[in-house]
Amino acid sequence: MPTCTATTTAGNPCRASATETGLCPLHGATPAERAERGRLAVQARRKATGEPPLVQDDTLPVLATSADVELFLTRVISEVRAGTMPPPRAVAINALLATRTKQIAADLMGEIKALRRAWAATKKCPACQRLRVGLHAGGAA
């Protein structure tokens, strides 16, 4: 059986079996076909490890709280360690998660400021002032 006429990236002759075109399926494939083959290989690795894909149907999990971010980051780490996610992708995801964490912190700071304003407004209310004095004295209002 004839071998592929292409050379590898290392400059050595490809040793794979050739198709009718004289090239192996890898060297004779279009970029779209190579991308599809890579996608299928990643899916096969995920099935072999038994871990569900991190991103399904091009949708990300809802990252509404810092606990959601932490859980997602834990899954990213486990995929990198299992070899099912390339480290450069994990680096990019980590940068995005850091941005999301900062957004969550900013949202929380906004809520804290609103609560402080509401608390300050109660100082002007006589009924609230009596309630606050009663609570500090250890009694109920």
How would you describe this structure in keywords?
rod-shaped, mainly alpha, 141 residues
What report would you give on this structure?
The chain has 141 residues and is mainly alpha-helical. The chain is built from four helices and no strands. The chain is rod-shaped and about 95 Å long. The model has no long low-confidence stretch (mean pLDDT 80).
Oligomer: single chain
Helix content: 55-70%
Q: What gyration radius follows from the Cα positions, in whole Å? A: 29 Å
Count of discrete alpha- or pi-helical segments spanning 4 or more residues: 4
Number of strands: 0
For the terminal residues, how far apart are their CA atoms? 93 Å
Structural class: mainly alpha
Largest sheet: none
Mean pLDDT: 80
Which blocks of ≥5 consecutive residues have pLDDT under 50?
A: none
Order of helices and strands: HHHH
Shape: rod-shaped
Strand proportion, as a percent range, falls in under 5%
Describe the secondary structure blueprint for this structure.
Layout: H1 31-49, H2 66-82, H3 87-122, H4 126-136
Helix pairs in contact: 2-3
Summarize the structure.
The protein has 141 residues and is an all-alpha fold.
